[in-house]
Write a structure and sequence with these properties.
Helices cover 31% and strands 15% of the residues. The protein has 15 helices and 17 strands.
Length: 499
């Protein structure tokens, strides 16, 4: 029988959320260990190494706010970061803060069971190790469990196939017939990167995207010095904004200006680049008012065209290509599935996680995940999420920072109670608290256009998955305010086993 390895806390995942959670829990003086299925730090940026993989958030705010030295010194030559540059940044953080010695790589979480008598989690992993831990801190990431559609005949294909998240340098695409299925961020980046090298490239699109230029450009020394000098102000603006992307979010509605001025504003946003800037950086109502949104679409339509694959869906994969419902055969030597992920809760439901009374997490979330502020879920004591279901839809680094800080605060509060002898220090939210948060998720999502468009944000991309809000669309600043309010009320909505 494998001997248990005891730690105060186990962190699962070493992307933005996990690496910071590991650092914070280490600062509490607890014995903390971390595991990651990957071979190095970086989270999704370790896995997604396909040609053209790049952040869609500007370099100066796609990083941690809390390490002031690295803000000044960490290199970023362009206004957007490549995959390699992002992973190098994670490695730099892990080395500087002595985190590597706490991390066990190539180790996947397979199941976790709450032991009510011992008040701890028994955690089994792919290496055969068994951990006994008081706090199970999961930062698995919202884009982890890859989604590959079940297409008839795929097993007969004689060429190469890959999902965008499992791309390797050995994959051959130059002078090949390439088929890319999917048109999210990965699909768009792959088309741009492979199109100039493939013999032919066929892009199979289920939902047409509105594509804006990224306006990739170098950042010179003078601009970098100006940003470095303003970082305190920049982060203050980020954390008090809705989306947290580092640009101003005007309060003006689309129809508050003349048609001529509206066109000029849209053109300026187009020239600056970034889909997020276009959505949030010019007008306040593009995501909530359909008429306003149509004005943006009208402008973009002047610049691009789209093809609707729904008119001729894929019917089968053959030994040397893909056939569609219109009878056409599309030759392929390489099929790339840029089909996204069973996102957010899918990262967790693949694991056998059993809480109080042997309750299974995937069963509890069968009708959609429910959490208290994206941090905990009832009946699963001391199971803590960083950027889990119910976390804010916003720039990922500052959003995960908020979650990690709150997790660390909960643990510190629980430890104080446990050590004082006034309670067990077991963290669990009440069902009423998560119902109240879920009501907010649904109300706010229902007021946006996100809820009216099928997407992975609501689970629509996975057949049979319950379509429901999985993120908080109220904005980063309101999320921070909600967490601050809970702290000020001595962690309202939580119980700590106090006697």
């Amino acid at each position: 029988m494998t001997a248990e390895k005891y730690y105060d806390a186990l962190v699962v995942g070493t992307g933005f959320g996990g690496l910071y959670a590991l650092h914070l829990i280490k600062q509490l003086g607890l014995e903390v260990h971390a595991i990651d299925y990957a071979a190095d730090v970086g989270g999704t940026w370790h896995w997604n190494r396909y040609p053209g993989a790049r952040s869609d958030v500007e370099s100066y705010v796609y990083r941690y706010s809390w390490d002031k030295e690295l803000l000044q010194s960490s290199p970023w030559p362009n206004n957007y970061l490549t995959q390699a540059e992002i992973q190098a940044y994670f490695q730099e953080v892990a080395r500087k803060h002595d985190l590597y010695r706490h991390i066990q790589f190539s180790t996947d979480l397979t199941d976790a069971t709450w032991d009510e008598n011992r008040k701890l989690w028994l955690v089994k992993v792919s290496t055969g190790d068994v951990f006994a831990v008081r706090y199970l801190v999961t930062a698995i990431g919202i884009l982890y469990r890859k989604n590959v559609p079940d297409i008839p005949g795929l097993e007969k294909f004689q060429g190469q196939t890959t999902h965008s998240s499992t791309w390797t340098p050995e994959i051959e695409y130059k002078d090949k017939h390439v088929a890319i299925i999917g048109s999210g961020a990965s699909g768009v980046q792959l088309v741009g990167s492979l199109g100039g090298h493939a013999k032919t490239l066929t892009h199979f699109i289920r939902h047409a995207q509105y594509i804006l230029p990224a306006a990739l450009r170098p950042v010179d020394a003078a601009e970098r010095r100006a940003i470095n000098a303003r970082y305190d102000e920049i982060w203050r603006d980020v954390f008090t904004s809705t989306a947290g992307f580092g640009f101003a979010e005007p309060a003006r509605p689309v129809f508050s200006v003349s048609a001529k001025d509206r066109e000029a504003i849209f053109q300026s946003l187009w020239d600056q680049g970034s889909g997020f800037r276009f959505l949030f950086g010019g007008f306040s109502d593009l995501a909530v008012d359909e008429a306003a949104n149509k004005e943006a679409i009208k402008f973009i339509h002047n610049n691009v065209s789209a093809v609707d694959l729904k008119k001729s869906p894929i019917t089968a994969v053959t030994s040397n290509g893909i056939t569609t419902a219109d009878g056409k055969s599309h030759p392929a030597d390489l099929i790339v599935f840029a089909t996204g992920f069973d996102a957010i809760d899918g990262s967790y439901t693949r694991i056998d996680i059993r809480g109080r009374g042997n309750k299974i997490l995937r069963d509890q979330w069968a009708e959609g995940p429910k959490t208290h502020t994206g941090i905990t879920t009832s009946e699963f004591p001391n199971l803590l999420f960083v950027n889990g279901p119910g976390a804010p839809f916003a720039n990922n680094p500052p959003a995960t920072e908020e979650g990690a800080r709150f997790v660390a605060d909960l643990i510190a509060h629980a430890e104080a109670i446990r050590k004082s002898g006034t309670g067990t220090g077991v963290i669990e939210n009440t069902p009423e608290a998560e119902d109240k948060w879920q009501e907010q998720l649904e109300t706010i999502a229902g007021a946006t256009l996100f809820s009216k468009t099928g997407s992975w944000l609501f689970g629509e991309n996975i057949p049979g998955k319950k379509v429901a809000p999985r993120l908080y669309f109220g904005g980063l600043s309101r999320y921070r305010a909600a967490l601050a309010n809970i702290r000020s009320e001595r962690y309202s909505g939580y119980e700590f086993g106090e006697s």
